[in-house]
Design brief:
The chain is mainly β. The chain is built from 4 helices and 29 strands. A hairpin with a 2-residue loop joins strand 26 and strand 27. It starts with 5 loop residues before the first helix and ends with a strand.
Length: about 450
């Protein structure tokens, strides 16, 4: 074998250090720099044609007309970590984000490359969802900041904003300028790349707009999760499980995933012995011909609630109809489904009820027969996929409906406007409809197959 000279070996060693060691050595406090302030060593551009350069100790992403979303991704994957960096944009259209535990498929999009996975959002628009969590090129919004509206004020346009992202176990938490912004519990990806995004642009005049990233550092050892100090809503995608934080802030499961504990048939002394099934942590009302509460019947919580934050996942079959009702008193003695305020669950495209009522007030997520849900199709999951419903009743009787994290309506129980709606609805025959001080939560049997999971509630005081 030919011997190599000392100078040649030195050159090889230096080359390998530059190409194979993208990270600086961890500091005494455990932080490691992912950007040396001078070069893009340890990073590579993928999936688009936007340019990335280095200037003034910052990575600068430059938007390009006609290019899809472009990413500068780490050559290394990371599992549990705490990531900090600073980001700045100078134009309101310069949407961006930080990919974490993400994936890159070079064969995606017909060989053009595809990045997908968790993203901490940067949103300088009036929507102001910076720090929310998006699932790039996959599930869409996981934690929109409509779930934490106070945090929408944290981002500062035209200045560097400090992002902190903790991904430890199944929990992902974000901060923007020290403000707690998003709390996600999800198990889809346990590790992956880190990426810096330059978003595609729709207006060619926006070409050349810049996004700046600097002071990028990561900690991967001896991690201590930072507890949220405020009572922030948690999006929890684990099946029928509560995080420690949820338990500490008063959340409780209404369905344990194993049996019917806490539920009973409406107007009955026990849980129905047919029609409702529990399999693999999913509660399902089976199809029985599409009639309202003529088979197994509705089920209600054994406990009554007054002010609360109720969340539930639901999955519709084609053409199905159901509902989640609240303030159900079981005192009306009516036939059919028990009476109560209803978060409508419906296949809007295929069930005829969507075209009844007034101005769409019987469609999905609406306050049934009273107020139409103001929802965009892109925030609605297709039939056969899980959607997330949420009803918040505040102690002052303000009520909100959410669908997949987006608020779709609000109203005030007992107000003059509310009573006018009731007077013009099918509920006008019941005195003081929907104004009880407390009531049961109800899942409706409308004769169609509909499934539920992750039903949880927090009482509000």
């Amino acid at each position: 074998m030919r011997k190599l000279s000392i100078s040649t070996l030195a050159f090889i060693a230096a080359f390998c250090f530059i190409q194979c060691a993208p990270e600086k050595k961890a500091a005494a406090d455990g932080w490691t720099s992912l950007f040396d302030g001078k070069t893009l060593n340890g990073w590579k551009r993928v999936a688009g044609e936007a340019e990335y350069t280095v200037a003034d100790s910052a990575i600068v992403g430059i938007a390009k007309a006609g290019s899809p979303n472009t990413f500068l991704i780490s050559e290394k994957e990371y599992g549990d970590f705490i990531l900090e960096l600073e980001i700045k944009v100078e134009h309101r259209t310069s949407n961006s984000g930080v990919q974490i535990r993400s994936n890159y498929d070079p064969r995606g999009r017909d060989g053009k490359g595809k990045v997908f996975g968790y993203q901490a959002e940067l949103d300088p628009s009036d929507r102001a969802w910076s720090g929310g969590i998006y699932d790039e090129a996959r599930r869409g919004w996981l934690y929109p900041l409509s779930l934490n509206p106070e945090a929408r004020k944290a981002f500062r346009f035209g200045e560097y904003n400090k992002y902190r992202i903790e991904a430890i176990g199944n929990e992902i938490k974000t901060w923007v300028n020290g403000v707690e912004t998003a709390y996600l519990v999800d198990s889809t990806d346990a590790k992956g790349i880190i990426g810096l995004q330059v978003h595609s642009i729709s207006n060619p005049e926006d070409a050349g707009n810049k996004t700046y990233f600097k002071n990028i550092r990561i900690k991967t050892d001896s991690l201590e999760p930072t507890p949220f100090k405020k009572d922030v809503y948690v999006v929890n995608n684990l099946k029928n499980r509560l995080s420690d934080y949820e338990k500490q802030t008063g959340c409780k499961l209404l369905f344990n995933g194993k049996n019917s504990e806490g539920w009973i048939g409406a107007y009955k002394d026990s849980f129905p012995d047919f029609g409702w099934t529990i399999n693999d942590g999913i509660l399902t009302i089976e199809a029985s011909g599409g009639e309202e509460s003529t088979n197994a019947g509705d089920i209600v919580t054994t406990k009554e609630y007054s002010a609360f934050d109720l969340s539930f996942d639901f999955k519709l079959t084609e053409g199905a109809n159901s509902g989640v009702k609240y303030f159900v008193t079981l005192s009306e003695g009516n036939e059919g489904s028990a009476i109560g305020l209803e978060f409508q669950i419906l296949d809007d495209e295929r069930h005829p009820d969507a075209k009844k009522g007034k101005d769409g007030n019987r469609t999905l997520a609406s306050l049934y027969d009273l107020i139409k849900a103001d929802k965009q199709p892109r925030f609605v999951k297709p039939i056969g996929e899980w959607n997330k419903g949420r009803v918040v009743v505040y102690p002052d009787n303000k009520v909100e409906h959410y669908l997949n994290g987006i608020k779709v309506l609000e109203y005030q129980r007992g107000s003059e406007a509310y009573r006018k709606l009731v007077a013009a609805s099918k509920y006008k025959i019941w005195e003081n409809f929907g104004e009880a001080g407390k009531g049961h939560i109800l899942l409706q049997d409308h004769g169609d197959k509909v499934s539920f999971k992750n039903i949880r509630i927090k009482e509000l005081h």
